[in-house]
Amino acid sequence: MYRSRMVILPDCADGFKTLMRDGLGWLDSQMGGRATIVPGRYTVVDIALFAALDFAQGVGFSWSAGHTNLVSWFAAIAARPAARASLHPLAVARGQRC
Q1: Residue range 11-63, pLDDT digits in tens
Q2: N or C: where does the chain have the smaller number of CB atoms within 10 Å of the terminal CB?
Q3: Is 97 within 8 Å of 50 (Cβ atoms)?
Q4: pLDDT digits over 56-70, tens only?
Q5: Which DSSP string corresponds to 24-78?
């Protein structure tokens, strides 16, 4: 998808995926059922991670296995009126959330 627009390092992909899964595992363990990443506050961190995970899904990176707290958090963020209102029609057609 990006080969014509940027340098691609396919040899690094597996390592970066492992780092991402490890980081998400740590974050999932910290969430403990919280509704937001920063306890009690919806911040740009929630928005940025939501966009990153939605993009990751869109390019075939499966991040949700074993991350039950993040899956719940992601669904709650996706249900927010602002998240739904921000959808571009092409994103909706592709199944993306942002």
Answers
A1: 878 888 889 899 999 999 999 889 999 999 999 999 999 999 988 888 888 89
A2: N
A3: yes
A4: 888 888 899 999 999
A5: HHHHHHHHTT-SSSBTTB--HHHHHHHHHHHHHHHTT----TT-HHHHHHHHHHH
